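User: I'm writing a tutorial on reading structure tokens. Could you give me a worked example: one chain, its sequence, then its tokens, then a sentence or two explaining what the tokens reveal?
Assistant: Sure. Here is the example chain.
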Amino acid sequence: TTMALSMLLPRLAGSGTGFARAAAATAAMPATRPAASRSGILSFTRCRRWASSTTSAAPTPEDVNRLKHLRNIGISAHIDSGKTTVTERILYYTGRIKEIHEVRGKDNVGATMDWMDLEREKGITIQSAATYAQWGDTNLNIIDTPGHVDFTIEVERALRVLDGAVLVLCSVSGVQSQTITVDRQMRRYNVPRISFINKMDRAGANPARIIDQIRTKLKIPAAALHVPIGSEDAFEGVVDVLTQRAIYNKGARGEDIVYADVPAHLVDAVQAAREELIATLAEVDDEIGELFIEEKTPTEDQLRAAVRRATIARKFTPVLMGSAIKDKGIQALLDAVITYLPTPTEVKNTMLDIDNNEQVLDVVPYSNQPFVGLAFKLEEGKYGQLTYIRVYQGRLEKGQFAYHVKTGKKVKISRLVRMHSNSMEDVDSVGAGEICALFGIDCASGDTFTDGTVNCSMSTMFVPDSVISLSLTPKDKNSPNFSKALNRFQREDPTFRVHVDSESKQTIISGMGELHLDIYVERMRREYGVDCTTGKPQVAFRETATRRSQFSYTHKKQSGGAGQFGRVIGYIEPIDEDQQAELPHEFVNNVVGGNIPTNYIPACEKGFTDGLQEGFMIGHPIVGVRMVLQDGAAHSVDSSELAFRLAAFHAFRESFKTSNPR
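And here are its predicted structure tokens:
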């Protein structure tokens, strides 16, 4: 076969046919190949997947221009800070909707992004909703996220696939508990943010205090780009610190923007805000820092470029102001999103090459690359499962085949849509950097899809542990919809978990809070017609140490023949609360000199892990503890893995009692 192929190749070399190119590529393959499979087709697919994850071809000018005018942003905040109201104004001013409806409006219509009946009844956002809009010549993919901690997974998976975010803060309440949680999630996924101080018309509005809270509580440098013109009931507009112009919103719904000179009584305040902005930027940006040292005044363009650089580098957050409910400051916020937040090409994303020992590769966000996409959200609709996908590189087209990296299955893209809240628009293809949705794809949140030419996987998202559980019993024992509803909710929401108690045989549901579970019980009744009775909620408490505690424990047992001996010395200490989400516990080996043989160290770690399973106060698991092993002793005959595992277990238990547990 090889001889015949070598004789045939010269005749086909000049023909330019696809077969000639394929044959030439086959002849050029290295001699070392993977073992042949029983199916030639499967073997060929596997060889294709060994191809490079990127191509060297330069992106087309049209694709570069498209990505330059694309932003993927999320709106995140604490409860009742005005996220959905801000999003409603963004959709109105960009022309996506013709009328503005409020979250708790008297017309009983409700905001566009709160499309579920439960959301409109309770006046809260339960599910993150995606939409797209256009501001000027820039396309925006926007995700409005919930504020309640019960629905934190919606924020988590939205920030996983977004390039930038708007952090909305109340002008009175400022940085609150869920604001800190959202900040932690933004840091986890390296998402740059713009801060928007909303509700400037409220009594007690104090933007200076909120900016100080951003610096001290969120620990990120911040400075105002706006100076408010009045406050509370007298709030009229803002002054742009960079252009030094006053911005007013006129018209029935603030759609007319009027620029004017800075009011005389604010000239000094605007100059002070500009100096504060320069001083803050000088600490995080080299160019402004040099001008600051040389006592030169930076130009407007230099300041704008520095704000963009520092924001994308996540060293700084610009602060804007307005009142969404009064239709003020939203257009300036949109301008800031386009000016300061990154394009898909300015954000570094990575993927793991499965065929090359999970080597980390950079994602190349252009449409001429092999397709790689991440499924980040599932939703059950009237047409079946709806899968939200972020296209990281390559192009996804209607009718093409995609490969599910986890299972290796090939699926056909039969329908491709863009989402606008709960409505959708069919499209034929989407390029790199876009967010779209598919129908009829069997997968889970966090799964990666490719076009089959690469075998790479995107990193998945962080899923927090459940914090509360309750028993659930259907009133109709024979209802088939009970298990169907639970299975669907588990697929949609990774933080919603179901198991059957081995002793009581009851179905136990677990989630992020009482509201979280109540919503699912109510959805089960409305969407599946299954009435359920619930038991008393049980909180998933955790125990932890609050101070360092030393240990020196010797496990010794002699009962004829070889005994058990192991001695461990060290201490336990609490882990900082900021690190506990990513590091619930840690074992550190600082033993030197071989006093404990290295083959027994893993046994010590297992003993420590065993001790974490049950605390002393109420019997719940222990978290937030670091065990540091410093020294010990071993016996040449009596020491074993079991001896050191038990020694570490009892040493941890004894030292935990004296660590002021809570």
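What the tokens reveal: The longest strand covers residues 564-574. Confidence is low (pLDDT under 50) at residues 1-53.
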